[in-house]
Automatic annotation (TrEMBL):
<dbReference type="GO" id="GO:0032259">
    <property type="term" value="P:methylation"/>
</dbReference>
<dbReference type="InterPro" id="IPR014777">
    <property type="entry name" value="4pyrrole_Mease_sub1"/>
</dbReference>
<feature type="domain" description="Tetrapyrrole methylase">
    <location>
        <begin position="25"/>
        <end position="221"/>
    </location>
</feature>
<dbReference type="InterPro" id="IPR008189">
    <property type="entry name" value="rRNA_ssu_MeTfrase_I"/>
</dbReference>
<keyword id="KW-0698">rRNA processing</keyword>
<comment type="similarity">
    <text>Belongs to the methyltransferase superfamily. RsmI family.</text>
</comment>
<dbReference type="InterPro" id="IPR000878">
    <property type="entry name" value="4pyrrol_Mease"/>
</dbReference>
<keyword id="KW-0808">Transferase</keyword>
<feature type="domain" description="RsmI HTH">
    <location>
        <begin position="252"/>
        <end position="298"/>
    </location>
</feature>
<keyword id="KW-0949">S-adenosyl-L-methionine</keyword>
<protein>
    <recommendedName>
        <fullName>Ribosomal RNA small subunit methyltransferase I</fullName>
        <ecNumber>2.1.1.198</ecNumber>
    </recommendedName>
</protein>
<dbReference type="Pfam" id="PF23016">
    <property type="entry name" value="RsmI_C"/>
</dbReference>
<dbReference type="InterPro" id="IPR035996">
    <property type="entry name" value="4pyrrol_Methylase_sf"/>
</dbReference>
<dbReference type="GO" id="GO:0008168">
    <property type="term" value="F:methyltransferase activity"/>
</dbReference>
<dbReference type="InterPro" id="IPR053910">
    <property type="entry name" value="RsmI_HTH"/>
</dbReference>
<comment type="function">
    <text>Catalyzes the 2'-O-methylation of the ribose of cytidine 1402 (C1402) in 16S rRNA.</text>
</comment>
<dbReference type="InterPro" id="IPR018063">
    <property type="entry name" value="SAM_MeTrfase_RsmI_CS"/>
</dbReference>
């Protein structure tokens, strides 16, 4: 264990360092663009740990050179993560401190690390988060869309049919939808958003914290037109945020609930007349109304 790691008070009153002395995996957030966004605690730890497990050691080496530190590096990416568990666990068991970093932002958020953290936690190892930059949180904070509830889906499927299927499954969700997208698929994704969700409001956060950071807002069709006029707007890494579906009225919600109830009973072999009676007792309304609806569902209407 590096002897310079120690528990000590933060510079402001009432806060205490959570940094342990031995056998800890630190999950360290790194900048998504602007290097000044690296938290002081993260910068210190990266110079003090015994090992840095990095998604791309070449990329992380540039950050470490910027900090003027040179801890040993170990690659940990989606293709070798499971194989690295025993190696890193052995280092922790020996009392060393290890930092886990991804290429940008917070590890595990559409980045490697989940398998490692899950397995080490199951073995009783201590996992300590070192918060910092996260593209989806940064984008939401400046997008002007509701953030009290949001649904993060990472990267949408690469194939068009599968991507549209995923969007169709999300079409009725009322939360703000958040995706990551790459420059070579952003136009296809916008086209599919327009096909499935129509004129729903979309906000694109492009190149966050970098020189050409841009927020674009509009319908999918309007955003595609903007990119046709200015191809530079299709460059860079994107956070795609989509307004949630409008809330259903009470009548619409009741209709959906009734259909689900009737369909479930019919699937179990309950007769139309009995299903209608049960629905009337459960949700109210006339049995005649529910009978007609049950019969329509049974007939596939």
């Amino acid at each position: 264990m590096n002897p310079s790691l120690s528990s000590r008070a933060e510079s402001f009153p009432g806060a205490e360092m959570t940094d342990a002395i031995t056998g800890v995996l630190y999950v360290v957030a790194t900048p998504i663009g602007n290097l000044d966004d690296l938290a002081p605690r993260a910068a210190r730890l990266l110079g003090e740990v015994d090992l840095v497990a990095a998604e791309d050691t070449r990329h992380t080496s540039r950050l470490l050179r910027h900090l003027g530190v040179a801890p040993p590096l170990l690659s940990l990416h989606e293709h070798n993560e499971a194989a690295r568990v025993e190696q890193i666990d052995a280092r922790l068991a020996a009392g060393e401190a290890v930092a886990l970093v991804s290429d940008a932002g917070t590890p595990l958020i559409s980045d490697p690390g989940f398998v490692l953290v899950r397995e080490l936690r199951a073995r009783g190892r201590r996992i300590v988060p070192v918060p910092g930059a996260c593209a989806l949180v940064a984008a939401l904070s400046a997008a002007g869309l509701p953030t009290d509830r949001f649904l993060f889906q990472g990267f949408l499927p690469a194939k068009g049919g599968t991507r549209r299927g995923r969007l169709e499954a999300l079409a009725e969700r009322e939360e703000t939808l958040v995706f990551y997208e790459s420059p070579h698929r952003i136009r296809d994704t916008l086209a599919d958003l327009g096909t499935v969700l129509g004129e729903r409001q979309v906000v694109l956060a492009r190149e966050l914290t970098k020189t050409f950071e841009t927020f674009l807002e509009g319908t999918p069709e309007a955003l595609l037109a903007r990119m046709a006029d200015d191809p530079d707007q299709a460059r860079g890494e994107f956070v795609v945020m989509v307004a949630g579906a409008a809330p259903k009225s009470a009548d619409e919600a009741a209709s959906v609930d009734a259909d689900a109830l009737l369909s479930a009973m019919l699937a179990e072999g309950v007769g139309v007349k009995q299903a209608a009676a049960v629905t009337a007792r459960t949700l109210g309304g006339a049995k005649k109304q529910w009978y007609a609806r049950a019969q329509a569902l049974k007939d596939g209407d």
